[in-house]
Here is the input.
Amino acid sequence: MFIDIHLHTRIFQGPPRANGSRFATPEELRAMLEPHGVRKGVLLP
Here is the structure.
């Protein structure tokens, strides 16, 4: 089992950042991390 100890998220989709990316929603994070064996994460405010 892997634990990612540095995650950022937003409840709603936010505006894009300067490079065009954006923070993922919790559901998007889970979908991205599960295939890599990450079962837990620490969300930072």
